[in-house]
Design a protein that fits this description.
This protein is α/β, with parallel strands linked by helices. 36% of the residues lie in helices and 23% in strands.
């Protein structure tokens, strides 16, 4: 089974980190994984997206042109990539940043006001993980026990305090 995921937003929203986390979770479950970041020259504010492929078989190309799952964190990313989701696919969106309703009836849509939720919980910058939690709830892509070890691999030792906050953000999205 192969799952193609595209995460998209603007620089500074944690798109690449979220993709890296999902890649580690896939590796920890013994899957073939491809993680392919793409971003503009700006460190913050520019465009950012990340292609992630999880498969039981070797992966031929790391590029995701038609995702099974799109995680969109802002309106430009939603407008650009939503039409490319395969029929039957899943759109996970931050509806505190995307104020348009999806016109497609052939995909599933899961939305949360993730940016607002992160702000309300004093977890600014963790809307990405709230959306990851929602995606995990909607897909059962990974076993729950894969989440914490994958996050431990992604959070550097110098930012160890962020481990619990990231896990809390994932739980918020999963519980919504």
């Amino acid at each position: 089974m192969t799952t193609k995921i595209l995460l998209a937003g603007s620089g500074g929203q944690g798109i690449l980190f979220a993709g890296k986390f999902l890649a580690y979770a896939g590796m920890m479950e013994g899957r073939e994984v491809s993680w392919f970041p793409s971003y503009g020259p700006e460190a913050r504010g520019g465009t950012s997206n990340c292609s992630l492929i999880l498969s039981d078989e070797p992966i031929g190309s790391p590029v995701v042109r038609q995702p099974d799952i799109l995680i969109a964190m802002n309106l430009p990313s939603y407008l650009k990539f939503m039409p490319k989701i395969v029929p039957g696919g899943l759109l996970v969106g931050d509806d505190s940043m995307i104020h348009e309703k999806c016109p497609r009836g052939d995909i599933r849509v899961a939305e949360l006001p993730a940016t607002q939720m992160a702000y309300d919980q004093e977890m600014q910058g963790l809307a990405n993980m709230i959306l990851i939690g929602l995606m995990l709830k909607e897909t059962s892509l990974f076993a729950p026990e894969a989440v914490e070890p994958a996050m431990e691999k992604c959070v550097p030792a110098g930012k160890a305090a962020m481990l619990d906050l990231n896990l809390k953000a994932i739980s918020l999205g999963f519980a919504a």
